[in-house]
Amino acid sequence: MKLFPVLYKRVFKPLAFALDPEFVHDNVVLLGRLLGKTAVGRLVTRTMFYFAHPALEQDILGIRFPNPIGLSAGFDKDAELTDIIPEVGFGFAEVGSITGEACLGNQKKRLWRLPQSKSLLVWYGLKNKGAEIISANLRKKSFAVPIGISVAKTNCANTVDDTNGIMDYAKAFKLFQDIGSYTTVNISCPNAFGGQPFTEPTKLDALLDKLDTMPNSKPTFVKLSPDLSYDEVDQIIDVLDRHNVQGIICSNLTKNRDNPKIVEKNLPEVGGFSGKVVSDLTDNLISHVYGKTQGKYILVGVGGVFSAEDAYEKIKRGASLIQLLTGMIYEGPQLIGEINRGLVQLLKADGYNNISQAVGVYNNLKINHD
After folding, report:
1. Where are the beta strands (DSSP E) in the chain?
2. How far apart are CA 82 and CA 146, in angstroms?
3. pLDDT exceeding 90 applies to what percent of the chain?
4. CB-CB contact of 187 with 223 (8 Å)
5. In this predicted structure, what is the pLDDT of residue 2?
6. How confident is the model at residue 342 (pLDDT cuts 50, 70, 90)?
7. Strands of 272-273's sheet, edge to edge?
């Protein structure tokens, strides 16, 4: 529907941006849930937004991805949109983050738009209904595209203790061991009690030791912070090498307020930034991790994806899959189809038959064009 981008930018977006962002988010989730419940709602959505092309299909870790563009964790916190996500055109999605116990999150206000920076300032604090409720809701569902489950430790004083934190991760991990296509261990939420203790190698080792003892037939990913030094990243990778981990997500929100891409002033002193503010940090992190690991891990690039060119940059740096969230809010839900169409054109221009051939080309690896 060629008219929709104009309607979104001239009508829907100005109206939405005049309202509180959390109120808008909650109502968009409600709308998506309602559309996903009916065949008519799904068909209308698919007709408006869906795009498919064989050049975008990949088999990764035994999982079939129809295209590389996924919805990032943080949007569908309670996994309510799994029926409508495929119809919008996403090739996969990650729900959550989901914690061992239900969590109300941080006090409001906890979401701000930064339109000059093309960013969001987020301070939700892992708001979700908890692993027991969400896993029960998903257990009997089937999914049209791969669904990743992002797990984290409950945002409360009790989980500041490392042992309690590990058991909280383990509870969520176990409840989803047979739900979804992969599990992400989110060690990088910047908005929870106790900070990010499991980015410390010894503590991360203990966490993954526990998760390794739990039956799990799905791949496991670990989500990194963009604010880590490369030395810290290397130490984390050394830990991952000893455990049952197949992928790395680069990256989460940044808390660095000295970032030159932040245009707005007098911002709240809480929260982390998404969108264009984090794009360069993510791109450089992908390059570093891919260069260090030489393809050992599947990388997922997330942060500042507003166009096909943004996504392709991350792919050529080493990401096999891409996630977005903020770009969709600023550009509209048609962005997913636009990116996928653009990727097909970029691949063709570079002489590639499939998206997998472009992964990591900046690292001068040998690419098979057959």
Report:
1. 58-60, 63-65, 69-71, 92-99, 111-114, 119-122, 147-152, 182-186, 220-224, 247-250, 272-273, 298-302, 321-324
2. 10
3. 92
4. yes
5. 73
6. very high
7. 111-114, 119-122, 272-273
